[in-house]
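Entry 12.
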Amino acid sequence: MNINVKRMAFFGSGKNLDIGNNSDIGLNAHIAGIDSGGEVTIGSNVLMGPDVTILTTEHEFKHKNIPIVFQGIKASRVVIEDDVWIGMQVIILSGVKIGKGSVIGAGAVVTKDVMPYSIVGGVPAKIIGWRK
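Predicted 3D structure (tokens):
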């Protein structure tokens, strides 16, 4: 296994985290929620820029008569398939799957699944091109 974890990366205990061969966890990356039941799978040959945040939990908020703080959290899985490039300061929300060969532009907020070989950017992230 050849995994490069840059300085100041945070991923708690590392449980529920699977990283493929030849992948790079960027400087100051933050993988949150895996100690609370969320899961992250990062494929092989994944490049990650600095300050990327991957969230695997979110607060429940469907009941208006109960304060959000008392409604608990929902844990999900994030999957990043092989050969993905994630730009600087990207935020990936819980439950998202990023398809093989995709490029995520710097500063994007990924709220939905990303199709293989697509290029996405923006807030929320949208398709802005395709790898050919």
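Annotation: The first strand starts at residue 3 and ends at 5. The mean pLDDT is 95.
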